[in-house]
Amino acid sequence: MADIKISELPAAASVATTDVLVVNQGTTTRKATVSQALAGTLTTAQIAGLATTAPAALATAPVVGLSQFAARADHQHVFPTPAQIGALTTSQIAGLATTAPAALSTSPVVGLSEFAARADHQHQALQTDVQIFTSSGTWTKPANAKAVDVVVISAGGGGGSGRKAGVGTQASGGGGGGGGSYSIRNISAALLGATETVTVGIGGTGGVAITANSTNGNIGVAGGTSSFGTWVQVQGGGGAGAASNTTGAAGASSSARAMFQGANGGTGGAGAGLGGGNASQGAAGGGGGGGLPASATVGFAGGNGGTALGSWLSGGTATGGVIGGNGGSAPNVTANFPIAGSAGAGGGSSVTGNAGNGGNGGTYGGAGGGGGAGLDNVGNSGAGGNGADGIVVVTTYF
């Protein structure tokens, strides 16, 4: 067949699978099939698919609301913003209530799936409502609540101040306060009222330093009770007793109703203060203050604060004050975490100046340490450390 111009080729009514393309190679015009022309670019199966398979309809823009486009059942959605949720029209919301969904998978999938789903269907996320109370208030039950977890930690007790006495009469350091206690309870939301009163215990204040000669130490105040309605109630740690010649009574944990009780404080005496009690899940007890012997020739260090052993988040041990030094305050846990805290350490006594103060308890519910004993006509006794406040955290499940 002689070469002819492309413009002189006869017109075809339709393209058949045997039709060929005209290819100009140098000065010669040749004929080639579609497969030959696209060799190395598309496979035979791809070419056949392009010729016979129409693509599925796809959405051209993100949608919020209703759509008739199809998608894989396991495709991902970005969670809608509050503004997008608020932008739904009445007709769209009505459509959600009246439109039957496309066929769905009957079991959850991780990875790939062959089931189809609407392009704008929603994936139900695990929903919770968390309300944190670091001060007393009112909990309001969310709509559609199913169950509630309540964590309650009471406040720590304050440490006592040390006694002040003259040469020839021994003086005791102040005792450490008792640690707050811990409870957790799961409650059916149906049992709860529309609102419940939440009380968060306030940490007990430490005893004020003694300035008058030959005077016993001041007591520490007990920590406040924390509660959630009438469902969970945990009493605060006890305050330390008054330091006398012989002993500085420690505060005791006083919450028998708690799941985990706080620890007792360390006792003050005429020698070195005793360390505060450690706790498993409740808050720790404060360290006792250092005392003075009758000879009054040397002071003594305070005892270490107790440690809350239930979690490393409660921090380390507060170190007792050296002679005449303040007891260390306990480190605080991360804010709003319902974890019991460690306790403050006892202050050291002194024969040359003012005695050391007790350290403050750490959040939540850690007790205060006791103050050191002071010598008449030389210096004041040490003040007791303050206990830490409690916390209540309410988590609602839907």
Question: What features would you describe in this structure?
Answer:
The structure is a single chain. This protein has 398 residues and is mainly beta. The protein folds into three domains: 6-52, no CATH class; 70-103 and 111-118, no CATH class; 126-398, no CATH class. It is 7% helix and 16% strand. The strands form five sheets. Strands 5-14-7-9 form a four-stranded antiparallel sheet, with no helix packed on it. The chain has a four-stranded antiparallel sheet with strand order 6-10-11-12, with no helix packed on it. A two-stranded antiparallel sheet has the order 1-2. Strand 1 (21-25) and strand 2 (28-32) form a beta hairpin. It is elongated and about 135 Å long.
Keywords:
4-stranded antiparallel β-sheet, 4 helices, mainly beta, 7% helix, single chain, 398 residues, 3 domains
Write the layout of secondary structure elements.
Blueprint lengths: L20 E5 L2 E5 L1 H4 L6 H9 L17 E3 L9 H5 L3 H9 L17 E3 L9 E6 L3 E4 L6 E7 L10 E2 L16 E7 L6 E5 L26 E3 L3 E3 L139 E2 L15 E7 L1
Parallel strand pairs: 8-13
Antiparallel strand pairs: 1-2, 3-4, 5-14, 6-10, 7-9, 7-14, 10-11, 11-12
How would the global form be characterised?
Answer: elongated
How many structural domains? Answer: 3
For the largest beta-sheet, the strand count, sense and barrel status come to: 4 strands, antiparallel
**Strand order in the sheet with the most strands:** 5-14-7-9
Unreliable stretches covering 5 or more consecutive residues: 51-55, 97-102
Please state the CA-atom Rg, rounded to the nearest Å.
38 Å
Mean pLDDT, rounded to whole units? 83
The ordered H/E elements are EEHHEHHEEEEEEEEEEE
DSSP E strands, number: 14
Q: State the end-to-end distance.
A: 81 Å
